[in-house]
Structures are given as structure tokens and as C-alpha cells.
Amino acid sequence: MEKLIEIRDMCKIYNPGENEVRALDHVNLDVYEGELVAIIGHSGSGKSTLMNMLGCLDVPTIGQYCLHGMDVSSLSDNDLSEIRNLEIGFIFQGFNLISNLTAMGNVELPLIYRGVGKAERTRLAYEALCMVGLEKRLDHKPSEMSGGQQQRVAIARAIAARPPVILADEPTGNLDSSSTKEIMGILRQLHSEGRTVIIITHDDDIAEQAKRIIRIMDGKIVEDIINENYQENYLEQKESGKDA
Amino acid sequence: MAQLLEYIKMALANIKANKGRSILTMLGIIIGISSVITIMAVGDGFEKEMNDQLNSMAGGQLYVYAGDEASNNEDYMNNDDMDAVESEIAGVTGTSPDYADYGTVLTPKGSFDLVLRGGGTAQQEVSALEMVGGRFYNQSDISTGNRVCVIKKNDAIKAFGTDDVLGMNLEVTLYNITIDLTIIGVSQDKNSDSMLFGYNTDRISLEMPYTTFESFGWETTDSIYGFYITTDGTLPSKEVADNTLKLLRDRHHAQTEDYYLLQDFNDQLATVNNTMGMITGFISLVAGISLLVGGIGVMNIMLVSVTERTREIGIRKSLGAKTGSIMLQFLAESAIIACIGGLIGVALGLLMAHGICSLPMLGFAPGVKVSTILLATLFSSGIGIFFGIYPARKAAKLSPIEALRRN
Ligand SMILES: Nc1ncnc2c1ncn2[C@@H]1O[C@H](COP(=O)(O)OP(=O)(O)OP(=O)(O)O)[C@@H](O)[C@H]1O
Ligand SMILES: [Mg+2]
């Protein structure tokens, strides 16, 4: 598998000088194509900051970030927009849907900016919404949907344009256990289709479902292990285990 | 380019989502554009009306008359002077003293008050008449003082119940002298819609050679206070005027420049047009200022909108919107608001112009030019784009992460 992400000595320092916060502190990280990674850490440990870096939303204070072997720290705003559009599907902590657009409208957004024509766009967005089980909620606005449904719209939006990398920041943050299960199922399915999926969480149960677990604390990577308990059909196993 | 359509759709959706605010923003543009359109339409209509009026009055184009000194000396002009001007001055096509007096006329339909006008070779043009039957009186009618006349078509119908009146006689009484005039022509006004002079009366008016007044005992050929001169337009009227005055001074051995004076209707026309232009210009300036204020209103609302929608902008950018995409979306929004405002303004302006122009004391058609409407619409969109640039840039330049962090 090709190396997808290569982070060298990355620091993100907020408010340099007095009151400075080292949200990322000399982070080194390699992620290969097709991996299913969980980044776990306590609140305030720098997970979201790291995801913003991975997603080319923010630039590091020091250090280097190569995506597909290309150093992105030197790219212009517009180039970064293009990379985000083509390479990355974001699922944000807090859904970040546009409130006056319908589910369909929200899912179509990345496709619009990619320049996909109306017919193709509608088809892809519909497919994505079907995949997350929202084919009955196409014309609903975010305010007319439950939290779990909104999160699924956000997932549909991230996967509609079929980007090779999915970045999910607390995708199950405020959902009940059955919604959590559904959403984890979708993410694992995306992974099994060959996409690189990076899930950020503070929940060990969620992290347990990934192949590789990276623990982050105070902006530093303190642990980076292969999950020995990982099973392709984790959910089913757990279900049957319960029943027995 | 296909993308542009998407941005326009986004903009429209957003305008619809903020209906009340969008309409209030449009109001500034609506007021500005509608006042510009009203002023232009009323102004152009008035100018056109004035021109028609003056043109019909200015059929004679030049009017020469005795100055103070000549008047004091009672050194008026005579028919020989008129003939000399007509034959010696290049570019002159006719002359007429345009006499008029009131009498009565007896017709098969009864007796009517009469306006009797006596003119020279230029009279048809001076009175702005066109013939619908027969002929106008000519040079030989004038030199012999023939008892002929030309009647207006509607007067003929009043007098005879028909306009087939050629060769008929009218019994005309003036200064207690009654004479039969033979109708040789039927005419009508060239500018029949004329507002100030086209009023309908019970009077009948007749045109006859000015020399025919002599049949009523009025000595017309000697002391002519002033007369009209028509020109063929080949020479500048200034030149014709100067030559005429010089000839008259020579003929009367006058010493002073202003012995005879001359009124040039072309000058008056130009003066009226100038004044109108200045008035329209000034009011347009005021309207322009209100448009500017409207534009600033658009900018203000767009700035508010950008601030309100910072998060939306952040989401769009994080999903791959480029600086240009955001910029276009916001520009499209301000341009559409201003353009719709402009269109409503045009409609409202035309309505107001019609309202004003149909007021009883005015009563002329507003002058509506397609170019004005097109220009107003383009201009209002331009305002939207111009005043939208700053907010749109502000939106487009937001860093996605900063924008997402804000509420
Ligand atoms: N814009 C900012 N300015 C200053 N400090 C910031 C900023 N953003 C984040 N931080 C700080 O950086 C640290 C890491 O924040 P981050 O959002 O990455 O945490 P997190 O691991 O995602 O936490 P959570 O699980 O609560 O989402 C925190 O201490 C936070 O206070
Ligand atoms: Mg976070």
C-alpha cells in the first residue's frame, strides 16, 4: 500500500508568546492507503487540531505535511480548497450542515464545487443518502431532522464525491448506542470498499473497532498500536457474543 | 461558466430565505431608480412637447421687427422691404406679416366669431398647416389682394357640415364691412395634438392674403411692424439674420445696429432645451445621490449577511469552495438584489411618469426611451456588483478554520 499521509515534526502553537497553547507538539505520523485508524485522546488533547491539519483546513506552525507525497504547506488557498474537494471527505465534530439547505442540497455541495453537472450530482447525492438510510428525508432541512439523521447527512456529504480519504471527528459524539452502531457500520463499510478512514474519538469502544489506534495526549502521540482485537465483522461478533 | 448558474441559484435561494431583508435593501435602489426614470421620462416628454410647440410656432424661424428707434420714428417696414428680403437674401423662402383680427362670418350653419389671419408667402409654414384640399394662396393672390381664403377642415364642417367646400363663398364682416371670400383650400394643423394652441373653440379661423385686409379698409402694405421669414435651412440662420438686418438698415438708411431687431426661434429652442437639460441634470444628480445611498445600503446588508453566514462560508470552503466561488456567490446575490430593485424601480418610475404627465395641467406623453430603461437596469446591477465587491471579498478571504470556529 502507498503512503498517503506523512507528517514530520508537526507543531501547532496557538497564541504564540504569553498564554501559548501547544495543541500539537512535534507529531510524527504515517498513514497508508486503505487503513482504518482511530485517533483517541481526552478532551483538549489536540485531536481536532490534528484533524484540521490532516484535512488541509489549517497549516502547521512548524513541521511538514505531505499528502500523496506532495508537500501541502507551500500550497495556495485555492490549491488547498481543491485538495479538500478532491481528496478528503470531512465529517465534523458538530455536523456543520448549512441550515437553509435540504439534506440533498447539503450533500450536493462538494459536488457543486467539483463542477459535477446537475444530473450526475443528483444521482451521486441520492446514492450517498440511500447508503446512510435517508432516502426518505431528501427534502428535509437540518432543523427538521434528529441529531443522528443530521450526522448521517454529514456522512453522506463526506462520501458523496467518493474521496479517497474520510476524516471523521467524533462522528458518534452525541448519538445513542443504536445510531452509533449504524454509523460505525457505515464507516467500516467505507473502509472495506478501499477507502482510508480516520476516526477521531475519545471513546475506547469506538477506537476498539479500528485496525490501528493512535493515542494522543497534550498534543503528543503517546501510543500507536495495531489493534489485536480487530475483526472485520466486529459488530456481528459482538452481537452474537451478547446473545450467547 | 456552468458554475455561474449554480452561484446564481444559491444567491436566489438566499434572497428568498431572507425575503423581508432583501426587499428592504431593494427599497433604496427602487427609490433611486424610480426617481431617475420618472425624471427622465417626464423631462424627455416635456422637452419633446416643448420642441413640438416651438417648432410649430417657429415655422417662420425668424421674426424681424422694428427696434425702439424705428418705432419712435414710426419708420416701419413695407411690402417692398418684404419683397426685397425674399428676393435678395439667399436662403429665404418666404415672408409674412402674420396679421390677425377678429370679425364675424355668416355660414349656412349660422353666424360664427371669426379669427381672420392675413399672411404672405411664408404663412402656410408660419401657421404650420398642411393642405387636405385645394391650394394655399400664392404670390399672385397676395400681390392683387384676391378675396380668397383657406379654411380648416373642422371649421369647414362647422360652417357647412361638409369639408367639400372648395369654391364656396363665406360672408365675412370686419370693421362693419362685409365682403365675400371664396374658399380655395382646406387645411389642417400639422401638429394636431398641440397642447397649448390646439384647443377647440366655437370660432372659425380663416387664412387669407394680408393684402386682402385692404378690402376691409386696413392699409396693410405700408407700416408693417414686423414679419416672419422662412428659410430653406441651407444657410446658418445667423447668416440669414445678419444679411436681412443689413439689407433693411440700408433700405431705411439706418445708423444704429438695433434699428431693426430679429428674433431667432432656433435660438429660443436651444435655450429651452438647454434649460430643460440643466433642470433634468440637476434632478438626476439628486436621484443619483439617492442611488448611491441605495448602493451603500446594499453594501451594508451584504456585510451583515457575510458576518451572519461566516460559518456557512467556512463549511463551503472546507468542502472545496475556492475564493472565486464564494466571491461570485455573494456578488451574484448583491447584483440580483440590485437588479430586481432596478426593474421594480423602472416599472414604478414609468408608472409615476405616466401619473405626473397625465395631470390636468400637463397632459403630454412621457418620453420613454428603451435605452434609458436598459441603462437603468444595467446601472443598478452595476451598483450591486460594485457595492458587493467589498463584502464578497471579505467573505471569500475568510480562512475556513477561522470561519468554522465562529458561531
Ligand atoms: N483557536 C484556538 N486558539 C487557542 N487555543 C486553541 C484554539 N483551538 C484549540 N485550542 C486549544 O488547543 C487544544 C487542543 O484543542 P482541540 O480542539 O484540538 O482538542 P480536542 O482534542 O479536539 O478536544 P475535544 O475532544 O474536546 O474536541 C486545546 O487546549 C484548546 O484549548
Ligand atoms: Mg475536538
Description:
- The complex is a heterodimer of chains A (244) and B (407).
- Chain A has 244 residues and is an alpha/beta fold.
- Chain A has a single domain, classed as 3-Layer(aba) Sandwich (Rossmann fold), CATH 3.40.50.
- Chain A is built from eight helices and ten strands.
- In chain A, the strands form two sheets. Chain A has a six-stranded mixed β-sheet, with helices on both faces.
- In chain A, helix 3 packs across helix 4, helix 3 runs parallel beside helix 5 and helix 5 packs parallel to helix 6.
- The N and C termini of chain A lie far apart (38 Å).
- The mean pLDDT of chain A is 88.
- Chain B has 407 residues and is of the alpha+beta class.
- Chain B folds into two domains: 189 residues, no CATH class; 205 residues, no CATH class.
- Chain B is built from 13 helices and eleven strands.
- In chain B, the strands form two sheets. In chain B, strands 3-4-9-6-8-7 form a six-stranded mixed barrel. In chain B, strands 2-10-1-11 form a four-stranded antiparallel β-sheet.
- In chain B, strand 3 and strand 4 form a beta hairpin.
- In chain B, helix 9 packs across helix 11.
- The longest helix of chain B is centred in the last third of the chain and has 44 residues.
- The two termini of chain B are 32 Å apart.
- The interface between A and B is medium-sized, with 27 and 24 residues.
- The site of magnesium ion has 4 residues of chain A, from helix 1.
What are its keywords?
heterodimer, A: 244 residues, Rossmann fold, four-stranded antiparallel β-sheet, 8 helices, 10 strands, 36% helix, B: six-stranded mixed β-barrel, 55% helix, 19% strand, elongated, binds adenosine-5'-triphosphate
What CATH calls the topology of chain A is: Rossmann fold
Oligomer class:
heterodimer
* Global Rg of chain A: 18 Å
Proportion of residues in extended strands of chain B: 15-25%
